[in-house]
Specification:
The chain is of the alpha+beta class. It is built from 17 helices and five strands. Helix content is 52%, strand content 8%. The longest helix has 22 residues, at 140-161.
Length: 332
Amino acid sequence: MQQYISLDDKYLSAEGIITALVELAQGRGIPLHKLLRGTGIFEQDLYDLSQCFSLSQLLALICQFKTLMKSNDSGFLLGHQLVNDVSPTMQSVRLSPTLGAALKQLQQIRATLAPLFFTRGHIFQEDFYLYLQPSIGMDESLKSYCFEIYSAAFISLLKRVSSHYPHCYFDFTCKRPRHIQEYEQHLGLLVRFEQPYTRWHFDKQLLKCANSESSALRWQQSIAQSELHKNVSQSFVEAVCQRIYRDKNNSLANSAEYFAMSPATFKRKLKQHGVSYSQLQDEQNKLKALHLLGVRQQGNEQVAMRLAFYDIPNFRRAFKRWTGITPSQLKI
């Protein structure tokens, strides 16, 4: 049975987001002992590359950072800083020959470089869609903050790898924030809120853009160094979500059996990660329905069948429960 990353598994090195966060905080004059307080991370741990940290420690550190920075743009600044990281893992993404290659490499080492979320990509006609989902349970405030971090990192990566200014659409589930000017300053004007998903969307031709910073030799060297991290698995929540998304027969009992657990143990493990099975099931069904209806323009009957609803009224009721609107009201 494959092992999956749990909340308290220590596998993250200090390279990447932890180092970027510490450097940015120290640049603002925040004492290191204050930043690390309550995280279970000690200063000497940061200098020891054999030392590993857990997702729960990373979340605690991000919460401390957000509180101590006291600025509306701190998440965006951290995202930009993350792309400038000089670790082999980040270099293996930044030095990729094209944006498509960069995203492929990022997906392979995501659990190390961007561990708080996982993505699902779709190409349809002339566009590329990337849907983001949390790898662990988070409250809405922290989830929105982490989306700011990774959205800023993504637009920074687009700018570095693309030969011209990339037009990327950002959709967020949160309400329009008071600090909207920071969103527009760091992400551009193509930002929408109160959407039924968190999604990045751009012209698929960007995937083929040649990266002017790419070096075939240095890229292969950084790939070889980052190979060390490829044995890191996906998070338990991500594995469950993928199982639900792929399989129509995704009842709790069937999923528990797939993960070699009793239903009670399975529910308990999900609760430890801050989520419930019904919550994950609704989210996966919602995302699948939204993509099929809104992007691929399939009809209610086709989508209902894909989601194992054999009664159209039941599908409509479920869709309204997931999104607050009916399928006919959907505008994407």
